[in-house]
Write a structure and sequence with these properties.
Layout: H1 2-13, E1 18-22, H2 28-43, E2 49-52, E3 69-71, E4 83-87, E5 107-112, E6 123-126, H3 133-144, H4 150-163, H5 174-185, H6 190-198, H7 203-214, E7 217-219, E8 224-229, H8 241-246, E9 253-261, E10 264-271, H9 277-283, E11 287-288, E12 292-298, H10 301-318
Parallel strand pairs: 1-2, 1-4, 2-3, 4-5, 5-6, 8-9
Antiparallel strand pairs: 7-8, 9-10, 10-12, 11-12
Helix pairs in contact: 2-3, 2-4, 3-4, 4-5
Bound molecules: manganese (II) ion.
Manganese (II) ion is lined by residues 29, 88, 113, 132-133, 163.
Length: 335
């Protein structure tokens, strides 16, 4: 453990211009970890750029330092860096256009908690037992004796809070809660964070959600639930919609189908049973975790729903899922 932290410390203390990046479609862990890492660099006297190749969800704009993150879709960076730090991104394509900041001489530090196969960094710290990248960074802060300023404590807290689904998913551990407890004792106001992240939706978000839920459909004796939203001008952020479909009593499998562009869909999948939705997503060229996965689909919506239902039916059959109370067996695997 200390060995990898020592390598990371030496990397931070080495020379070379530096950019820190996280994945597109950024979530709370991507943004929170980015801000916390920026603060680590600042305390260790580094100049750096924080970048994400996407629009930033405004619900995180309460985070100290949020405005420092550069959206490279709006203001691209057309130069190569000697050091590139990549946080919370399982593979290089996940950082989008920031890939162009890397050449053969670039030294990459990769810190992540996703398991995705071969590592792509010169230094890789992958801890699949960590609930969030922020959880790994908490350990790094302690090792480096970093001062727990607002940027650090709020960044790390939001990373763990959102990646555990408010301490709901099976990756929630004693350690993740102990860390959050410590961050609260260091100054985080948990109520303020949760209000901002989860209870501060634009009016249009809730109005659109209401329309989506009115058209919710159940299949296979209530074991599967599908909701969908056609292309619209009102909202772009549909984060959290799929959770409503998967929270219906008795539902083992849920999907949210979102039309991003004409005939181009983003599908989010959730499982509350033994079914591994990453297997379903893989059949359509996507991926993810056992309990949460997704894929993109180009084509007609009726075909998409039919193909998805065929796959759901097959999974329900081979896993022998019955409409009863067995959905809430003690989970055996981590997300
Ligand atoms: Mn994460």
């Amino acid at each position: 453990m200390n060995n990898i932290f020592e390598q990371i410390r030496d990397y931070i203390l080495s020379d070379g211009d530096l950019i820190v990046v996280s994945h597109f479609s950024p979530d709370g862990d991507a943004i929170g970890s980015l801000l916390a890492f920026g603060e680590i660099l600042k305390q260790l006297n580094n100049d750096y750029i924080l970048a994400i190749d996407d629009t930033l969800p405004q619900k995180y704009n309460f985070l100290p330092g949020f405005n420092q993150i550069r959206n490279t879709q709006e203001s691209p960076i057309n130069r190569v860096f000697e050091r590139v730090v990549i946080l919370d991104a399982g593979s290089l394509p996940r950082i989008g256009s920031v890939k162009s900041c890397i050449n053969k001489q670039t030294r990459i530090l990769n810190i992540d908690h996703h398991f995705t196969g071969p590592s792509y960094g010169d230094i890789n710290y992958i801890d699949v037992d960590a609930s969030a990248t922020a959880e790994i960074l908490y350990g790094l802060c302690n090792f480096l004796d970093i001062e727990f300023t607002p940027r650090i404590i709020y960044g790390l807290y939001v990373g763990i809070l959102t990646d555990t689904g408010r301490f709901r998913f099976s990756n929630t551990s004693a350690r993740s809660m102990e860390i959050c407890g410590d961050l609260i004792s260091k100054g985080v106001d948990p109520s303020w964070v949760t209000e901002n992240v989860y209870y501060n939706h634009p009016f249009e978000y809730l109005q659109t959600l209401a329309e989506v839920l009115l058209n919710m459909k159940l299949y296979f004796n209530g074991l599967a639930c599908i909701i969908s939203l056609d292309q619209n001008e009102k909202i772009k952020d549909t984060d959290g919609f799929v959770e409503y479909a998967s929270s219906v009593k008795g539902v083992a499998l849920a999907a949210f189908i979102y039309e991003r562009e004409a005939r181009y869909y983003k599908i989010s999948l959730r499982s509350r049973s033994r079914i591994d939705v990453s297997e379903v997503a893989k059949k359509f060229g996507g991926g993810g975790h056992k309990k949460a996965a997704g894929f993109l689909y180009r084509g007609g919506k009726d075909d998409l729903i039919q193909n998805l239902l065929d796959e759901f039916e097959w999974q329900i059959k081979i896993r022998n899922i019955q409409p009863d109370n067995s959905l809430f067996e003690q989970p055996q695997e981590d997300i």
